[in-house]
């Protein structure tokens, strides 16, 4: 320990703490988008690898200085792009510890603390999200890998029921699996299907309504067809509108058909943590698997996602790996790799544990409520302004807005131009999308630190970009 006083590790950590503190202090005031160009960033960060190494403290300070112009203030209060949360103070602190501890969260033997923290955190998550306490949880990198893990468990289960061992025999000669997805499924669900050999192009698409929700009558029709193994992928929280598939209607149909029902709830599943919004996910607890994120609405630093499976035995059978040298437990201890496609990995349970402990049950619920109230407020404010149309029912934290040019012209083009102007202005940052054939501005409010004042300032900036004046 004495050796460490003034040692290179401490110097590097001190430099990181100093520069990170300065960065965090600048977050509320700096332009939200990146300022540096690609050429500037390459010039600042690039060049040949030096022959000689540098002192760790210098490396850290130089990195912070050179990267600064290319950083996006997504951890700040006025970042409304994609679906990106900030990092809660306790989660950030625990994430630093995770690096300092450098635990391999593969098996219990490589880090009993990481394994137990995941076990405890898994129980907290299930209880917050209203899911069965016996479900299993894999701590993965995000929604993409959560979907892949859950669908890997689904593939195992539906084929096993058909008498096929996919882990041993692969998909060669296997019974065909019918996969149903909503027309508005997130692209990562398709990527998961690709990775699992189920094919993104051979899914059956269930039509959706004007908000992006699966039409239950259409789902019923598709679910009634045939008797082959079937997986249906539903959604809690459409990435554009925030809408929810009607689980109450679809889950019983899937059960009756013997289909595996998966829920992509990357951010929307968190509605279950709030008494005010829980009704949106009514019926969801009876699904077979759920994918959700920590790095979106829970405001855990990247990367953090959860693959949750109702039947823990199925989950483990699809992912557990064994080898003679692995000192895996045969008792009650948790070997984290049983629940994820990864083997060695970061102990990403620590920051999730810290986030949940710092918020408590009420804090998580208040975070969801606050973001939804901000979304409603910005939608109301923008929607009252001439030439601005809110395209979606604002049921959660997502808002879609479209702008009509004041002196006539193409609204698609103008809406894209307003998005660009807002990005250049730097007060807030948001991105564009196309919703059911029409260009729209997408506003997603997922950060813990956003205040009503941030929402008002951002609305002013958006209206200035659209009409050249900020009329309240
Ligand atoms: C509904 C939905 N599913 C999946 C994902 C992918 O999550 P991740 O970016 O964490 O991989 C997203 C991301 O926005 C999403 O909104």
Task: Please give a structural write-up.
The chain is of the alpha/beta class. Helix content is 41%, strand content 12%. The protein is built from 14 helices and eleven strands. The chain has helices spanning 8-26, 38-45, 56-67, 89-101, 112-128, 143-161, 166-169, 187-195, 216-223, 247-257, 312-319, 349-383, 411-425, 452-467, and strands at 136-140, 178-182, 204-206, 230-235, 260-264, 289-293, 305-309, 388-390, 398-403, 431-435, 438-444. The strands form two sheets. The chain has a seven-stranded mixed beta sheet, sandwiched between helices. A four-stranded antiparallel beta sheet has the order 8-9-11-10. Helix 8 links the parallel strand 2 and strand 3. Helix 4 runs antiparallel to helix 12, helix 6 (143-161) crosses helix 11 and helix 9 (216-223) packs parallel to helix 10 (247-257). The chain is globular, with a radius of gyration of 24 Å. The model has no long low-confidence stretch (mean pLDDT 96). The structure holds pyridoxal-5'-phosphate. Pyridoxal-5'-phosphate (PLP) binds next to helix 6. Pyridoxal-5'-phosphate (PLP) is lined by residues 82-83, 142-144, 186, 188, 235, 237, 239, 264, 266-267, 293, 305.
Helix content: 40-55%
Number of helices: 14
- By secondary-structure content and strand pairing, the structural class works out as alpha/beta
Biggest sheet strand order reads: 1-7-6-5-4-2-3
The distinct bound ligands, ions and cofactors come out as: pyridoxal-5'-phosphate
Order of helices and strands: HHHHHEHHEHEHEHEEEHHEEHEEH
Instruction: State the end-to-end CA separation.
Output: 59 Å
What's the overall average pLDDT, rounded? 96
Strand content: 5-15%
Gyration radius, rounded: 24 Å
Unreliable spans are none
What does the main sheet amount to? 7 strands, mixed
Form type: globular
Beta strand count: 11
């Amino acid at each position: 320990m004495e050796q460490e006083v003034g040692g290179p590790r401490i110097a590097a950590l001190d430099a990181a703490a100093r520069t990170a503190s300065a960065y965090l202090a600048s977050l509320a005031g700096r332009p939200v988008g990146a300022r540096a160009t690609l050429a500037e960033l390459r010039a600042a960060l690039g060049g040949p690898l030096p022959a000689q190494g540098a002192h760790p403290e210098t490396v850290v300070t130089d990195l912070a200085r050179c990267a600064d112009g290319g950083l996006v203030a997504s951890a700040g209060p006025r970042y409304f792009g994609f679906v990106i949360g900030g990092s809660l103070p306790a989660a950030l602190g625990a994430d630093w510890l995770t690096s300092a501890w450098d635990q391999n969260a593969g098996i219990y033997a490589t880090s009993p603390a990481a394994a137990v923290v995941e076990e405890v955190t898994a129980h907290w998550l299930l209880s917050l999200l209203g899911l069965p306490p016996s479900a299993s949880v894999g701590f993965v990198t995000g929604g993409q890998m959560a979907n892949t893990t859950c669908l890997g468990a689904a593939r195992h289960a539906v084929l096993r029921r058909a008498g096929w061992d996919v882990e041993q025999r692969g998909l060669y000669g296997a019974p065909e699996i019918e996969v149903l997805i909503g027309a508005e499924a997130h692209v990562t669900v398709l990527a998961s299907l690709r990775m699992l050999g189920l094919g993104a192009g051979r899914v059956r698409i269930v039509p959706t309504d004007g908000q992006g929700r699966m039409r239950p009558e259409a789902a019923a029709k598709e679910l009634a067809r045939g008797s082959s193994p079937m997986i249906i992928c539903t959604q809690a929280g459409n990435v554009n509108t925030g809408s929810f598939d009607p689980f109450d209607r679809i889950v019983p149909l899937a059960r009756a058909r013997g289909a595996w029902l998966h829920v992509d709830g990357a951010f929307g599943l968190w509605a279950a943590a709030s008494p005010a919004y829980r009704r949106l996910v009514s019926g969801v607890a009876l699904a077979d698997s759920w994918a959700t994120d920590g790095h979106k609405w829970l405001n855990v630093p990247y990367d953090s996602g959860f693959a949750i499976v109702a039947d823990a035995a199925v989950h483990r059978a699809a992912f557990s790996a064994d080898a003679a040298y692995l000192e895996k437990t045969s008792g009650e201890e948790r070997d984290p790799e049983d629940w994820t496609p990864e083997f060695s990995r970061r102990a990403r349970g620590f920051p999730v544990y810290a986030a949940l402990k710092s918020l408590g049950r009420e804090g998580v619920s208040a975070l969801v409520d606050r973001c939804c109230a901000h979304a409603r407020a910005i939608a109301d404010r923008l929607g009252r302004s001439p030439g601005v149309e809110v395209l979606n029912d604002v049921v959660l934290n997502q808002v879609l807005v479209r702008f009509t040019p004041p002196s006539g012209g193409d609204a698609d083009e103008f809406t894209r131009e307003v998005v660009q102007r807002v990005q250049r202005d730097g007060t807030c940052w948001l991105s564009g999308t196309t919703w059911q054939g029409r260009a729209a501005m997408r506003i997603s409010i997922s950060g813990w630190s956003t205040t009503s004042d941030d929402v008002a300032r951002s609305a002013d900036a958006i209206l200035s970009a659209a009409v050249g004046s900020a009329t309240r």
